[in-house]
Design a protein that fits this description.
About 40% of the residues lie in helices and about 15% in strands. The chain is α/β, with parallel strands linked by helices. The structure holds 2-phosphoglycolic acid.
């Protein structure tokens, strides 16, 4: 049986006031499936407190990291600051590449900063021709057109691209992201090469996200 990797990405959604209700409606039927939740920086502290006190086996992640160490970089959150509250970080998401002009060179620096403090990295790429810095833990194949569009890639094509990414990078865990739902998740995790999923929109609704994890774990 495949070891599944599921990471939700809340993007720039929700405030502290939403955490309690979300966690109250989230349920895991199998605790052996690791679930990562990448929330806005402003929610990491409260999220950490609440998942600990409720005993919910979610591991926290951030969605971005500064390419610099701590210091005079107004508005940036350094890797060491994230590490106090989270274990994972998403680097290279297509929304950061598109809206914040993040280049491969900058992403390389972000990876270096994250590695330096021991953060684990989910590195997003839009295809199998993108460069991937050494040292990333998980790659997420996310075709730009499939993100938030409601139109996912086909499991067959995603499997093919992911096989190619694996052969080019030697990163053993490669997941798919782009309009993954509780309805289509099993078709992705049932393939040979896809190790898990990175749902964005579908992680915002705790009941849907719970169903998605259940469906994925039953079919993998
Ligand atoms: P989506 O987002 O599931 O809403 O398409 C995925 C992502 O951007 O990581």
């Amino acid at each position: 049986m495949k070891k599944l990797f599921i990471a939700g990405n809340w993007k720039s959604n929700y405030g502290v006031a939403n955490i309690s209700e979300w966690l109250g409606k989230f349920s895991l039927t199998r605790e052996d499936v690791p679930v990562i939740l990448c929330v806005p920086f402003t929610l990491l502290y409260d999220m950490k407190q609440q998942i600990q006190s409720r005993g919910i086996p979610i591991t926290l992640g951030a969605q971005n990291v500064s390419p610099f160490e701590e210091g005079a970089y107004t508005g940036e959150i350094a890797a060491s600051q994230i590490k106090e509250l989270a274990l994972w970080v998403i680097i290279g998401h297509s929304e950061r590449r598109k809206f914040f002009f993040e280049t491969d060179q900058m992403l390389q620096k972000k990876v270096e900063q994250a590695k330096r403090v021991g953060l684990k990295i989910i590195y997003c790429v839009p295809d199998d021709n993108s460069s991937v810095p050494i040292g990333v833990d998980v790659i997420a194949y996310e075709p730009v057109w499939a993100i938030g569009s409601g139109v996912s890639d086909t499991p067959e094509n995603a499997n093919k691209v992911i096989e190619s990414i694996k052969s080019k990078t030697n990163v053993p865990t490669v997941i798919y992201g782009g309009s993954v739902t509780d309805q289509n998740v099993s078709s992705f995790v049932n393939t040979y090469a896809i190790d898990g999923v990175l749902p964005g929109g579908a992680s915002l609704d705790p009941e849907k996200f719970s169903l998605l994890i259940k469906a994925a774990s039953e079919h993998s």
